[in-house]
Design brief:
This protein has about 110 residues and is an all-beta fold. The protein has one domain. It is about 0% helix and about 35% strand. The strands form two sheets. The protein has a four-stranded mixed beta sheet, with no helix packed on it. It has a four-stranded mixed beta sheet with strand order 2-3-5-6, with no helix packed on it. A hairpin with a 4-residue loop joins β2 and β3. It starts with 14 loop residues before the first strand and ends in a 9-residue tail after the last strand.
Amino acid sequence: MACLDVTTNVQGIPYLQTTNVSVSDTAVDFALGFRRIPPVGLIAIRVANSIPDGTTDTLPITLTLNGTTRPLTFFGGAAVTVADLAGTGVILVFNDRYNGILQTFPVAPATAG
């Protein structure tokens, strides 16, 4: 299934950029601003909007995708928090709308060597 009006790589994985970050008392939401994303599959997301300084590190991250806001988790269901997504960069996310899965793959920061 193709993604219409969405940049994809040669394997067809959508590459989306955050369009907005909003902070509330209960979560930090990254809006993706795209619709018609396939309901199941990988998505590369460029986090272009950093979370504002001073935001509580323990707030969970949510993504608004296809008009629906859902929590972003790690394997096993642990919530991705502000502390996990400091700054900007690219994350790889598996989306399965039918089974309520929106998981990112943990990546350890590079170490100087």
